[in-house]
Amino acid sequence: MEGILECPVCAEQYDRSGHLPLVLICGHTLCKRCATNLHKTTGKITCPLDRKPDNRQIQQISHSFHILDLIEHISDMSQTLKYLKLPPSERLIAMQKQAEENLEKCKDHIGLVTTRIAEIREKKEKTLAEINESFSVWKQALEDRQQTLETEVMNIAAEEIEKFEGVKNETQELFDGANITIEHLLNATEEDIASEDVKPISQLPDLPTVDMKLKFVIDLENAEHFIKHIGKIGKWSVTAPIECDNYTNVTYWMVPSCCSQYYCCNKCHDKRESHPWAYANRMVCMFCEKEQDYRKLPNHCEFCNEYHKGVVSK
């Protein structure tokens, strides 16, 4: 019976985490950890029992919940049989002890859940504050740019208007002179104007050669696209730490082969998991959220080309 409930590769009993039983096309089962390792090595899964290939991706392979239910049922039966073998007085004590252990386990789990909820709420408030601060900077920058452009337009227009005002003033002087002459002639006699004449204005002041082409130019389509895509919110696995306790400058998650969860470092993994850390051969870029082969740092993301310069110990 035990062999049926164990992975034929690693001989570990199936469970609901890293050793989740996967049903291959041939009908045999492998744990998720071993299936993942086989797939990463050869690009497919070959059943170790009948050597039949399974070309599906890991996420396409169904889980055998019947095996998990059977394991839990056997565990419950074993516990019941253990109690039945005891004398009534000892059985009562054992059952009370088990109930107390269950109570403590539930308390611990509630405490863990409460802590996670608090972490998420704290992260939410922190992220909202970061968004508000960042967009305040953007808003101020846009307002400053708007004021700069408006000032530039006003200065250019003022310079050109000043040129025309000069021409206007010169022409006004000629106009005033002609007006004075008319008033003089209206009141003059023939004797008064015997020796006078009115000379024509040969040339008015030249108009400035100004070609005003003020126009606000902006690539509105690209600007709107840019604004709509400012920022990014990464939604990471709840098993991954909200913040790394050991390093700063974390820009990627590592994916250890032991559980295929996202972790920033082995210390955070060991703090949250019951199994030891296994070498990570995959990584996830925090900028584009794309999983890729793990490479030594520093490096650039294979997909978005963002630079990962490496972590620094706190």
UniProtKB/TrEMBL annotation:
Listed SUPFAM superfamilies: CHY zinc finger-like (SSF161219), RING/U-box (SSF57850)
GO molecular function: zinc ion binding
Location of the CHY-type domain: 237-306
Keyword set includes Zinc: yes
Coiled coil: none
InterPro entries: E3_ubiquitin-ligase_RING (IPR052667), Znf-RING_euk (IPR027370), Znf_CHY (IPR008913), Znf_CHY_sf (IPR037274), Znf_RING (IPR001841), Znf_RING/FYVE/PHD (IPR013083), Znf_RING_CS (IPR017907)
Stored Pfam families: zf-RING_UBOX (PF13445)
Location of the RING-type domain: 7-51
The entry's keywords: Metal-binding, Zinc, Zinc-finger
UniProt key word Metal-binding: yes
Name this polypeptide is given: RING-type domain-containing protein
Organism this protein belongs to: Blepharisma stoltei
